[in-house]
Design brief:
Catalyzes the conversion of 3-deoxy-D-arabino-heptulosonate 7-phosphate (DAHP) to dehydroquinate (DHQ). Pfam families: DHQ_synthase (PF01761), DHQS_C (PF24621). It contains 14 helices and 11 strands. The radius of gyration is 20 Å and the shape is globular. It is α/β, with parallel strands linked by helices and 357 residues long.
């Protein structure tokens, strides 16, 4: 597959990754190579990666962090920063983030802030990280239960997408990443959406191309608006309510923890409903969105008493301005509109639609 050039990085695929990484290391001659993994990728992905990494005489150190969204904290960053310092990392060091979205988000933030910035490369190992988290330069950590409240936009030098790593993923993690692919179709490319919603006509060999197409869509959007002043905001469709739901379920122990994509799937249905009331999305499109998402994602139990705390969490959404909650909504499948506003009454209607469909 042909590599994709982003604003500051290059995304390489499958067998190309390791040859390009070899060239990169030779040209940049890092003082030390650090590899950040979590518990799972240490066991499932690191041996394969190390077997193909050609580092020459350069020292390689592996740092392991806990897995899961609850580990995406400034405390874990402190541990990684301290480990870098203890190992003698300098500004010529290279950090390779080998993992899912938590590892690439946190690792990118660590690299962007250690000594005011060291070079880093993302090697995403989950579907979510391949199509979304590792591309575009958004790095950061959560603030308590608030998603991605601390971070910077700082793109690494390279992204390496090796689809073979997906064989290590449990089914729920694969499904979680699929939510972001569906989102890319809904906000930007109806043809891509139609392809994704006819998966029974595809097989596993098509996954490479679908991932590639998803990265192309995200790169087009990010390249036009790297700092999220306008167009890039459309990537947040489903995330205003979705992030609030994810945070709420993360914070309340009596609720099951939702994976990112599971929460975003709910958010997309809710915000599709709002789109019919605010942006003229057709009822047929709403039915299609609801039906297709529900084929893959199980319904989440959200009760009446959950509405108010979820809505309160939306006040922390990063798209908000002057205390007003801003949504990304759909005018049609493939056409998104930014900076939309919705009343509390309409948001409650959306919850009731989701509850009763």
């Amino acid at each position: 597959m042909e590599s994709i050039t982003t604003k500051n990085a290059i995304v390489h695929f499958n067998s190309n990754i390791y040859e390009e990484l070899k060239v990169y290391i030779k040209e940049n001659n890092p003082s030390i190579i650090f590899i950040l993994v979590d518990i799972n990728t240490h066991d499932d992905c690191l041996p394969q990666f190390l077997s193909q990494l050609e580092s020459g005489d350069i020292q390689v150190e592996v740092m392991e962090m806990p897995d899961g969204e609850e580990s995406k904290t400034i405390d874990i960053c402190m541990g990684v920063w301290e480990a870098l310092s203890e190992y003698g990392a300098d500004r010529k060091s290279l950090l390779i983030n080998l993992g899912g979205g938590v590892v690439t988000d946190l690792g990118g933030f660590v690299a962007s802030t250690y000594m005011r910035g060291v070079k880093y490369i993302n090697i995403p190992t989950s579907l979510l990280a391949m199509v979304d988290a590792s591309v575009g330069g958004k790095t950061g950590v959560d603030l308590g239960n608030l998603k991605n409240q601390v971070g910077v936009i700082s793109e690494g030098d390279m992204v390496g997408i090796d689809v073979s790593f997906l064989s290590t993923l449990p089914k729920n993690q694969m499904i979680s990443g699929f939510a972001e692919m569906l989102k890319h179709g809904l906000i930007y490319d109806k043809t891509y959406w139609n392809t994704l919603t006819n998966l029974e006509q595809l097989d596993v060999s098509d996954l490479d191309q679908l991932i590639y197409d998803s990265v192309v869509i995200k790169n087009k959007i990010v390249s036009e608006d790297p700092t999220e002043q306008g167009l890039r905001k459309i990537l947040n469709f489903g995330h205003t309510l979705g992030h609030a739901i994810e945070s709420y379920f993360l914070d309340y122990t009596e609720k099951p923890t939702l994976l990112h994509g599971e929460a975003i799937a709910v958010g997309m249905i809710l915000e599709a409903y709002l789109s019919t009331k605010i942006c003229g999305l057709s009822t047929n499109d709403l039915k299609s969105i609801t039906s297709e998402i529900s084929k893959t994602f199980s319904k989440v139990d959200i009760s009446l008493e959950d509405y108010a705390p979820i809505m309160k969490l939306m006040l922390h959404d990063k798209k908000n301005s002057h205390g007003i909650i801003k949504f990304v909504l759909l005018e049609a499948i493939g056409k998104a509109k930014i900076d939309c506003e919705a009343t509390n009454e309409l948001i409650i209607e959306a919850f009731e639609y989701y509850k009763n469909f």
